[in-house]
What does this fold into?
Amino acid sequence: MNTKETQKSSEYIYKGKIINLRLDCAELPNGKYADREVVEHPGGVGVLPIDQNGDCLLVRQFRYPYFKETLEIPAGKRDKDGDNDPITCGKRELKEETGATAENYMSLGTLYPSPGYTDEVIYMYLATGLTFGQAKPDEDEFINLCRIPLVKAVEMVMSGEIPDSKTQVAILKANFLYKNGKLPLTNEKQDI
It folds into this structure.
C-alpha cells in the first residue's frame, strides 16, 4: 500500500530562535488533502558518558514546558545552519555540561522524538575514557551533575523516574551493549 504524502503548499506561521512552525497542505495517497502542522528544529545531540566505574553522568535541570526537573544525558541543539556536525556538537555539550572529555565515542544511532509533528533528529553517542575538567554551562543553564550506576539508571528508566526519551534510549542501548560484551566496565558490581 502506498503511504506517501505529497506537499502541495507550505506557509510559515512562526519563525523563532530555536523552532519554526509551518502549515502545509498535503495530498494523501487516496487523493484527498489534509493540513500538516510541522515544527522545524535544527536537531540535537545527546551523549551518555559512562566513567571507569560504570557510572552514568546525567544532568538534572528544570524543564520549563513540564514545570519540573528532569534527569537527562548531556545534550544540546545543533546550529540552525547545520554547520555543527553531530559529534562536534556532542563533544561541546559534554564538556559544557559535565566538564568531561572522552577518549572514545560510539554512535548509539538517531532518534525521532515525535515524528507526528516535528522534523527534529537527535544523534546519540556513548562516551567512555573520561577525563574531567571544569563544566561551563551556558548562562541560561542551571545544571546539577549526577552519577548513577548503569544498573540503577536502567531501573530508573523502567520505573518511569527518567521520562526523557533520548535518555531512556541511550541508557537502554548502553545496557544492551554491556550485556552483550561490547561495553566493558571495570566495576564488578555492574552485573546487570
The CA atoms of residues 24 and 36 lie 5 Å apart. The longest helix spans residues 165-179. The chain has two domains: 6-40, 44-179.
